[in-house]
Design brief:
0% strand, mainly alpha
Length: 139
């Protein structure tokens, strides 16, 4: 389905321009991402998504992609998921870091918990949210 990273980014950008992402609501990008993941024969598509999630030039776009990607619980590569979370938490943008925690909450797993524990969050409300997710995932 998707051959070029630019085409993927353009499709997603259009989807989020047409309909902004809202937590708790389905979004057309969810299906686009699911279809792209299903059609991919290797992990390059996951790497493309990971790169789009870290675009600090367009933080709202990146955060939206990360939130939708986080809803894809069938992503089998736990190391890649944890890497996405870890890298997103390392950005200076609070919206991307918040989206990383949302994805972490959906994905779970030991590597994700380790990524959350090792992160030193400066924003109090997000730091509290991270603690809650760590507690929930640790149960």
């Amino acid at each position: 389905m998707i051959e070029k990273p630019d085409r993927l980014a353009n499709w997603l950008h259009s989807a989020f321009e047409d309909e902004p992402f809202e937590n708790g609501m389905d979004h057309p990008a969810d299906q686009m991402i699911e279809d792209a993941l299903r059609s991919a024969r290797d992990e390059r598509i996951l790497e493309q998504f990971a790169a789009l999630c870290l675009d600090i030039e367009r933080p709202s776009f990146s955060a939206s992609i990360l939130r939708c990607l986080g809803r894809q619980t069938e992503i089998a590569n736990a190391t890649l998921r944890a890497g996405v979370v870890r890298n997103a938490l390392a950005t200076d943008d609070v919206e991307i870091r918040d989206a990383a925690v949302h994805a972490a909450e959906f994905w779970g797993g030991t590597e994700i918990v380790d990524a959350l524990i090792s992160h030193n969050e400066p924003v109090p409300w997000l730091r509290n949210y991270i603690r809650e997710v760590i507690d929930d995932l640790g149960e």
